[in-house]
Amino acid sequence: MIALRNVRKHFSKFEAVKSVSLTIIEGEIHGIIGASGAGKSTLLRLMNLLEAPDEGDVEVSGKNLTAMSSRELREARKSIGMIFQHFNLAANKTVYGNVAAALELARYPKKDRRERVLECLRFVGLEKLADQYPARLSGGQKQRVAIARALANQPQVLLCDEPASALDPGTTADLLKVLESINQRFGVTIVIVSHEMEVIKSICQRITIMEDGKIYETVDRQPDGVAVITKSARYFADELKKAGDPGHA
Ligand SMILES: Nc1ncnc2c1ncn2[C@@H]1O[C@H](COP(=O)(O)OP(=O)(O)OP(=O)(O)O)[C@@H](O)[C@H]1O
Fold first, then answer.
1. Which ligand 1 atom minimizes the distance to the CA of 38?
2. ipTM of the predicted structure?
3. What is this structure's pTM?
4. Cβ atoms within 10 A of the Cβ of 30, count?
5. One MF term in GO for this entry (predicted)?
6. Is 34 touching ligand 1 by the criterion CB < 6 Å?
């Protein structure tokens, strides 16, 4: 599905990714974990050529992205969606407008755009907020808009760069369930970069561990599943009262 072959990336004299080869299997949820600065985000951004490698090849669905003209690359990128830690929504566009912009950019047939936007917003449960601007949304809602936008062109691959890092645990669990259902219902291959072990363990079937710009190991495992996190006031109150009650020495 995605094959990185001996890819390297420098920033000035600093080598952020050091001759890495990695295959992402079609239909899997693949995690990339490692310490800050290990090169995770750079490796992810090499997969859709947001970062061009200094050396090596990037192949997605049998097509060598590194050998493409910018027109061909634009076309190939339609099959690769991406979401980011800080959502990267256009502040001057409504929820509807943000998703529609992705279709416009990909020259999706005009007459079908409205239905497609609404279909994507329905999938992430935000149809009712179509006319809102991002500033009025919570972090979890913003990330759902970003997902709807990334799904609009029916990608085969979804790249997720720290998608949950700006979210609370309950909202993170909701987001992970959405990603899981995108994988199961539409067969979309997902690559998710995170420094949070819980995120990676919950939904990833294979995990690549990075250190110092290199792959340390790739591990296969049965995902733990997404933990149910209750957000009720009762839960918070009960948890707080459990430990260290000062009234009962
Ligand atoms: N555009 C850039 N210009 C200069 N240096 C960069 C650039 N992007 C990344 N780097 C450097 O490359 C190294 C790897 O960065 P990268 O963001 O890939 O790491 P990471 O593992 O994702 O870390 P984090 O979890 O902190 O985001 C870091 O030292 C970073 O400072």
1. 21
2. 0.92
3. 0.91
4. 22
5. ATP hydrolysis activity
6. yes
